[in-house]
Write a structure and sequence with these properties.
Layout: H1 37-40, E1 51-52, H2 55-69, E2 73-78, E3 82-87, E4 93-98, E5 105-111, H3 127-140, H4 146-163, E6 168-174, E7 183-190, H5 192-201, E8 205-214, E9 220-227, E10 233-241, H6 246-260, E11 269-272, H7 276-285, E12 290-293, H8 295-305, H9 309-320, H10 324-337, E13 349-351, H11 356-379, H12 388-398, E14 404-410, E15 413-418, E16 423-427, E17 432-433, H13 437-441, H14 446-455, H15 469-476
Parallel strand pairs: 8-11, 8-13, 11-12
Antiparallel strand pairs: 1-5, 2-3, 3-4, 4-5, 6-7, 7-10, 8-9, 9-10, 14-15, 15-16, 16-17
Length: 496
């Protein structure tokens, strides 16, 4: 069987071969096109016989063709001396190999044309290629005036306001001591659709955290998130600041309290890490709210000094308790196994790209698409249907009902005795259990479920509305509107 990588019978000859080899051949050997990386790499066009300097150059040309046409390429064979590439769901394919005795790579077979369509996600367009594209622009114009960047940020923010009326966008700057251009200080953004979705479908629980921004500008990103019906993170607001401290957190919380109209603080729960500036700001701005610490943050610092699975299990048992006596017992067990413990703060890093405006665009696009994806998922569900994570928790509690013995006391009240000897009181009418997990999560615990089974009623009736499809849809129903690019922005010169 003839190889698709070619042989002497292919009729493909290198232009370096002497035409005197075959004196009886009256035809001249064809001279094949030599690929020029500088001019041809922008839009590679392949031909049978085309020559490349190396296998590396040929691979780069294939990937450039994939990116330019918006198609995903796959290398079925990827060796130092031969390559075969195909496009997924397409008849287009190409094969190339090295010329014998030469450091030249030549196309031996090419099947055209393309029969596939463009794709949304091109895996060949990776971070390295994108960075090369940006850096080439920066090399051509390395001294972009600061005033142009400030104007660009102002135009970005004005466009966000236009696309999403009712959004809160606050940009603050500092006066230059030398009388120059104002210096960027901090920026707060709370998009109206996210604000409305959170207030419509999420519980009054806020998680606050900050992370470092990688890139030439540095700084930190402050975030406020909620939790949706499926126990997934729901973004509410974010801010760009120079450093995570008491002043910036107080400023952030002041704006957030206004946006969420937090008046009855005792109805809200705030979850944070142990960062001192953040804790102090919460105590000042939300003194009446329930303040809790994120266990994941605590554990990531806890394990630095206390390694091993035993202490890890103890810590998470403490966090999972739902009533005071159980918590105290678990804490006593944890303290007995350790003499010292340190609970600090965790910092992650977010790559914010080359400049501030690019980073803002990345965040905006992510939020816009995230809302749409979750909205589509909600619309496919049946009314009253439980989300996968919620359903999984319910099933887990169902499996634990075999250790419960319910006794009816009358008026929808039950006494639940466990095999372990523990005993709890369940009130189905008030939807409470002295184990308190039902009260905290809105999902019946195994004690409550055992009582519900006695009534022969549907379990879904006792799941709180905040855990059902309708609440989820209310959270993601608001649309983060698409924003125009720089080409469509008016040059207002407005100061934000």
């Amino acid at each position: 069987m003839q190889s698709e990588y070619g042989s002497d019978s292919d009729g493909l000859r290198s232009p370096s071969e002497s035409s005197e080899e075959n004196d009886d051949n009256s035809r001249k050997q064809p001279k094949y096109h030599v690929f020029n990386e500088k001019t041809d790499m922008k839009d590679p066009v392949f031909k049978v016989g085309m020559l490349f300097k190396s296998v590396k150059e040929f691979r780069a040309a294939i990937r450039a063709h994939s990116i330019k046409d918006g198609r995903n390429v796959r290398f079925k064979k990827n060796e130092g001396k031969r390559i075969r590439a195909i496009f997924e769901g397409c008849n287009w394919r190409i094969s190339a190999s090295t010329e014998q005795g030469e450091n030249t790579f030549q196309v031996k077979r090419l099947d055209e044309p393309h029969t596939c369509s463009r794709v949304w996600n091109n895996r060949n367009l990776n971070s390295r290629i994108i960075s090369e594209m940006y850096f080439s622009d920066l090399r051509r114009n390395p001294n972009i005036p600061a005033s142009e960047l400030v104007d660009k940020i102002n135009e970005d923010l004005n466009e966000l306001r236009r696309a999403n009326p009712g959004s809160t966008i606050v940009l603050e700057d500092l006066e230059d001591e030398n009388g120059g251009e104002p210096i960027f200080d901090r920026l707060y953004i709370c998009l109206e659709p996210l604000k409305r979705g959170f207030l419509s479908g999420c519980r009054p629980r806020i998680g606050l955290d900050g992370c470092f921004l990688k890139g030439p500008n540095g700084g930190q990103l402050l975030t406020a998130v909620g939790m949706d019906t499926n126990n997934s993170i729901y973004p509410i607001a974010y801010a760009l600041v120079g450093v995570e401290n008491f002043d910036n957190w107080s400023w952030f919380l002041g704006l957030l309290i206004q946006d969420l109209k937090i008046r009855e603080q005792e109805k809200w729960c705030v979850i944070t890490d142990k960062q001192k500036g953040l804790q102090s700001a919460v105590y000042k701005k939300l003194p009446g709210a329930e303040h809790r610490h994120c266990v994941q943050h605590l554990y990531c610092n806890f394990k630095k000094l206390h390694k091993g699975l035993a202490l890890k299990g103890r810590l998470w048992k403490c966090a999972a308790t739902s009533y005071v006596n159980q918590f105290n017992a678990e804490m006593d067990g944890l303290k007995a196994e350790m003499k010292q413990h340190m609970l600090g703060c965790l910092t992650n890093q977010l790559d914010f790209g080359l400049d501030l405006t690019s980073g803002l665009a990345v965040l905006y696009n992510y939020l816009m698409q995230r809302m749409q994806v979750n909205r589509d998922a909600a619309q496919k569900m049946q009314p009253g249907q439980l989300w996968p994570r919620v359903f999984k928790k319910i099933e887990k509690e169902k499996n634990k009902t075999n250790i419960c013995i319910p006794r009816c006391a009358g008026r929808h009240k039950y006494q639940i005795t466990c095999i372990s000897g523990d005993q709890y009181a369940v009130d189905l009418e008030q939807r409470t259990c002295t184990y308190r997990r039902w009260d905290l999560s809105g999902l019946p615990c195994n004690h409550a479920i055992s009582a519900i089974y006695r009534t022969r009623e549907k379990l879904d009736m006792y799941v709180d509305d905040c855990c059902k499809k309708e609440a989820y849809l209310r959270s993601y129903e608001p649309v983060v509107n698409p924003a125009s690019g720089h080409n469509g922005w008016p040059k207002t010169g407005l100061v934000v």
